[in-house]
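DUF2332 domain-containing protein, Actinacidiphila acididurans. Tokens?
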Amino acid sequence: MTTDHADSLLETLTDMQRHEQGNHGWSVVHEALALLMRSGDPALDALLAAVRASRPGISDSHLITLLGIALRGLADRDPEAAGLFRPEPAAAGRAAALASILGRDGAQIAAVVTEHSNSFTAARRFLVPQVLLGAYAAHHGIAEVRLADLGTSIGLLPRQLNNRAVFERFAPDLRWSPEAPPYRPIPLTARYGVDAPPLPDLDWVRHCHGPSAYYGDRFSEVLWTLEQTTPDPPGLRLEALDLLDADALTGYLRERRINVATCNFVLYQYDPATRERIVAAVLRGLAAPGLLLSMEPGHELRRQGARVTAYLDGDTTGRPVADVSDAHCIGTVTLLPASADLTGAVRKPR
Ligand SMILES: C[S@@+](CC[C@H](N)C(=O)[O-])C[C@H]1O[C@@H](n2cnc3c(N)ncnc32)[C@H](O)[C@@H]1O
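Tokens:
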């Protein structure tokens, strides 16, 4: 790994340890990782170099979360790995245990980190696209929405859209400023969800949740949602597609005449140049007028919250339309001035 990469990784790791949600299961393991990285541990260096070589566009934050997830998988069957997620012993002891685990199981951990992505999915995130897309279709007179959810994980969002009961369960915990556009059904006539092959399953998604009561609650919400929603609402297909294959992505959208794409918590997994290539490929593929609505974590998971960006009419300059105070959509959504282009006028707070 180059010194530049090592420095930026360590900086991101340090910020992620202070992240408000880090305490919900990950910060203890991040602390030991940072100590080991600073000490120049050869097994960790070799693992990071191998991952960088096979996934050149991976972002620091994604690499860090994947390392935590790989260790969490190991912790299910290895008491020494389970100890990495407990605050006792102190950090130096956990870093020593991590060094021994990497020396022993480094190849297995590298395989997880090179072959999978963080597929954490949150049951409440669909609230924001539900409201914004309903308002977009009404404001722009779009009679038919053919939707693709890119990086869908297990496809929660396409199952949830237009499900009023699921909306009503979660909507009261999300405040809007100024007030929320009203709930409107989206005129969906097709819904696709795509993710990288092999498609993530529920067990992998469970591993992507931090080992804590907080993430236990979030995972229960995922399970509840799966029970409440049908796996095949009219027109839903879940398909494997690598978003990094720009031509395949553009062709996929064109063949299915997709005019609205959502892409939530996916682009942060890549460096800025890779993100731009994905956005451009999507916009080339969307049927006119075309909308890509993307929700991505603020500061690449280094701070709490997320920003919602709209790419309208093929314009690759994204317009920030809303800030969400919490990536799991439990706090406040603040509509930004550019949301008026999407949904009509932003109403002033009363
Ligand atoms: C953090 S999850 C977000 C899931 C869901 N959109 C949500 O917000 O709840 C990111 C998903 O993007 C997928 N992803 C990342 N890179 C991808 C690629 N190149 N092609 C397809 N899917 C990808 C991952 O596999 C993962 O399931």
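The chain has two domains: 3-115, 127-343.
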